[in-house]
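Give me structure tokens for this 363-residue protein.
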Amino acid sequence: MSQPKIALVGYRLNRGGAERVMANLSNFFHANNFEVHNIIVLDDVEYPHSGVVFNLGKLKNKQNGVFNKIKRLMAIKKYLGKHDFDFIIDFRFRIKPIQELLISRWVYNTDTIFTIHSSKIDSYMPNFSPLTRLMYGKAFQNVAITKTMQQLIKGKHHLKNVSTIYNSIDIDNIVAKSQEEVELEFEYIIGVGQYDTNVKQFDKLIEAYSKSKLPKQGIALVILGEGKLKEYLQSVAKSFNIEDLVCFLGFKNNPFKYIKHAKFFVLSSELEGLPMVILESLACNTPVVSFNCPTGPEEVIVHGENGLLIEHQNIEALTEGINTMMFDYELFMHCKTNAYKTAQKFSLETIGKQWLNLMNSKK
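Here you go.
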């Protein structure tokens, strides 16, 4: 039997959660005797991955005009035609209907699995349901990363070929990297994510933290990530007179050591898909305090067992949750004890087998 071939398509192999899932799966498929090809749109490769990289970003010019876009579409079509792939898995967000119609019906030439990584499903599928069904109704499968998202897609677009496979994490790699020492010599809680946009709502996290008991105890708030809202977020911290206790450490290639040494992780997002950083925090044996945003947290966090679920957008309740996790030692230790074992269901081996089962269901 010939070696199966798979094409994984994403924007990059760096920074994002979906990109980390793609990189992890490239390693899993390679370890399971697949010939893996990673097709990326942007020239940005940092995550450990396996297989060939076809980097469309190297064909992108500064103008990124119509002809350049057509050139790259033709390049990927030619590449897919050259290689007889058994499956294509698309991890990109897909917000340009005409372009995506061309890709789904003309560029992709074999069984394709489209993934949906956010509760904002119109970032992946058009609001106009007939167009969505035209684009994705005949795909091999549309894979949501939470059961709630699967229900949203089925309810809105009436697609029958929708299933759920959770994000995977490479637990062994996370644990190994989390053992490294950090340069911080103070107690802290942590938030992680980009702030080019305010979807992570670090301003609300800063406000909730400022109203908690932690600043008076000298327990800091560390934020990992980068983005153009840094000055705004610094001004928010200054407005609450806690600028010396809110530490913006920037983007880190190894965030796990900072998560491991934090007292707990806080997620304050407006919306998510299935937050990778929650899974990674649990794998680091770090409890979680999280807004119960539309999808994701409630399918991972069991309230009072491995973390605390907070009423969505309730800043006062988030402050209370931060205080509770910090100063209720019995609850904290109970959640910390359960954190690592609840991450196991999201292990690369467990989730990878679900991907294999899906592809083996091909008749």
